Automatic annotation (TrEMBL), chain A:
Lineage: Bacteria, Bacillati, Actinomycetota, Actinomycetes, Glycomycetales
Tagged with keyword Disulfide bond: no
Organism: Glycomyces rutgersensis
InterPro entries noted in UniProt: ABC-2_transporter-like
Transmembrane portions of the chain: 23-46, 58-75, 107-129, 141-168, 180-206, 226-246
Top-rank taxon, per record: Bacteria
Entry keywords, A to Z: Membrane, Transmembrane, Transmembrane helix
Protein name: ABC-2 type transport system permease protein
Amino acid sequence: MASVDLALATIAFKRKIAYKTTWLFSVLFGGWSMLAGLAVWNHLIGDGEIGGYDWDSMKAYLIIGFLTSTLAWAGSDWDMANRILDGLVSIDLTKPVDFQRARAAEYIGGMTASVPAAILGTLIAVLVFRPAGPASPLAAALTAFSLLFIFPLAFGISYLATLCCFVTQRFLGIQWAKDSMVAFFSGLMVPIALMPVWLQGIAWAMPFVHFTTTPASIYLGRVDTAGALGLIAAEAAWAAGLWIIGRLIWRQLVKKVTIHGG
Amino acid sequence: MTLKRAVPARHVFAIYWRTWFAQIRAIVEYPADLWVMASAGAVWNILQFAFLAVLFANVPNVAGWDYHEMLMLSGLLSVAGGCNALFWDGAWSTGTMVIKGDIDYRITRPAPVIIQVGSSHIGMQSIGEVVFGAAMFVYGWIGAGIGFAAVPIGVLAIVCAALIQCALVTALCAVNFWIKGQASIFAFLLIELQGNAMKMPLGIFPSGVRIVAMFLVPVAFVNFVPVSVITGHMSAWWLAGIPAAVIGSVLLAVGVYRLGLRAYDSAGH
């Protein structure tokens, strides 16, 4: 990592925690969706099981979903989008820094600000709700490794979403569409195992599934070691693929930038 | 800072509609923007529909609520959110305006600040949200076997849901007058809470959540209470609570915004 990347990541990190009260409240209330999910699935599963998930494994699934979504939704989507919407992108074009790489550094710097909150919230949830443990020490290690890919995957998807701002005037609706795609096809709203086979096929063909289903499947031993390594390889492939797709789309959309005056 | 005296309601409505139609004219100038955003709103609703379809393929009912009744819950919530984006999306910009000092201009103009801010944007995702949300609501209505006699209640429910949603979002966005930040974190939390909890029957949640949703932050009156009354899960007497929730929410929004304007100290230079 070049020093400029580190500098941009540090600035994004500091910007994220500059508004301390907002950051504090986002930490305190970030677990709402997990608590709601626990209430819903506790009611639905009871003493039985759905889709191969009993109550203990569903608790683990939802807590992993909380951890990954807290990380994934903590990036600097709005900062990226506003650069395009406000026209700052025209200034960026004059700088000797690659736009995508600079935004990636800022995005991951912003995500890093949420790591303490995500870990603290996960620890509290584990202590309070006592979910199922990992299938094996190796499964736990592979789960932790798979979680690292959340960073480039989240950036890749958010970057593609913010590129839409070249043809729109607002980002809010795009962000909600992106977030709902991630929530549904990651399995956060409803586990992929409960979906019909054709929908499962669609979900596994997209990158979103690696936000919740992949780490949860590895953790709970729903895939063996070879399967876990295959899923991690798929995560790496998507991280690289999204980077390349982002670059290709950028090349087309940046032509829309019009600079007036002079 | 001294606030201006009240202006006539007719003037307020005139300002609102002139600004709103100006936004509509701007939207027509950018058709790509319109279609991308409308599609984004549609995606959200299609996925809500898919969520319920997947859920009810695995369980027969949720706390006594069947598939069609739950579609009505989600549909009404989407219509309310869509109306917020269609008629009052500017409220979401309060935090950004406070940080950038953009409220300054609006204070100097002869119209209520809250009206100017609320009508400063139209979220075009609202088109997808309102159309698909209404489709879910009507499909659920027909599937649940509810007749035409309840249509007036349904219309009242939609109007009140939109008003409560706009008012609560405005009140929570106004918190950014004190807790500075570009993102309206409290309003986002409201939407997240609604998205996670209010598309489910309240009965599955602990009593504390029910009390908060019914009486403290009356999100239950956006969709849960009206749909419960229409489908017979709650007594018709609860209908009286819906206009009361509208009045309470609007007064809360206006009150918090006024207090926020008193606390506003511009961006500083």
